[in-house]
User: What shape does this take?
Amino acid sequence: MARQVLVIEDDADIARLVQLQLADLGCAVRLAGDGASGLAEAQARDYDLVILDLMLPGIDGLEICRRLRARPGYVPILMLTARSGELDRVLGLEMGADDYLTKPFSVLELVARVKALFRRVDSLASRSAQAGQVIENGGLRIDVERRQVALDGRPVELTATEFDLLLHFARHPGRVFSRSQLLDQVWGYSHSGYEHTVNTHINRLRAKIEANPNRPEYVQTVWGVGYRFRDAPRS
Assistant: This one.
């Protein structure tokens, strides 16, 4: 069955280019040219992926992303923007975007990102089949099936990518991962120059689960190498 993709993009040429490339991947693609119609379409159907422009007439991409993440269920969101500023990127990720692509982008990179998101979704679906799995480490509790996290009994709100990153770490306590390995194994792609994506997510994850993000207990830095998740305390 073809994957269903919604492209919300007000530049008709870019929207058509994306549509043609995804059609070559076997996707069924719908287009929306403004924020209001795009949001309505995203809420009316179940999509396997939403490709979302940041700067849209009417309702902007950040607001659409926020509203989609407030709904039950999960759909991957790839955000597009002509603005490459750090603040825009961080805001998009904070609102729940899974990945971020700056215009102009190459067709090959777009296809690689889309394939990576599909692989992540397929992998998560396969892992979630391990019903009832719960990972506990100190005061941190990760409910894999429900995709919920609690710290000392209090719920922790994570974006989809933050959850995937934390789960990857928690499944391999004590193992050191480089930034490029995390890009490949969590995001599903590996491109030099995108290690800052890992740094941003690590910092935001620490801000949510660490008592003191400057002296992290769970996600630890291994200088000159990468990061590791602390070993589970022995009982």
Notes: The CA atoms of residues 52 and 79 lie 5 Å apart.
